[in-house]
Amino acid sequence: MTRGRIASALAMGALVAGFVTGAAxxxxxxxxxxxxxxxATTASMSGSNLVVSFKEAGLAxxxxxxVTSSATATTTYECVNGGGHNPSASNKTTTQSxxxxxxxxxADKNGNITGSETLSPPTASQLGFSCPPGQTVxxxxxxxxxxxxxxxxxxxxISLPGTYSYTNPSAP
Length: 172
Known about the structure:
CATH architecture of the largest domain: Sandwich
Strand content: over 45%
Largest sheet: 5 strands, antiparallel
Number of strands: 9
């Protein structure tokens, strides 16, 4: 190879390397850093369910993300007799347990996902609570705390402060 051809080949290699590096840099700049938008990520009660709404930004367009909403649920159930009363304090239970739900969301062309997930209180049978014959299990209340939204794919997460509560108006 002549000196001219070597110089030409080196210049072409440098040009290709520069193009590839520039393309990679542009791609990573387009995705940014995944994060939840604080003012667009909220929780609210809908009956005894906690509805978590969120917006995450900084994702690649078309990225498929697995988002999990979780909380600590403090749930109370009681036994109610045929007369509509709770006959004994031992026939009432309050438990704390973790609740969560996950969903798959696809980022829009701007690298954002928006969505909502609903957390429900555990059932009495899930908690191992039952009533003696002649009494009915009645849901009394639930409160949710330690609410967290996490993107299992990107690693982004946000905590939602506060406690969200519901009391069954029909419970004695």
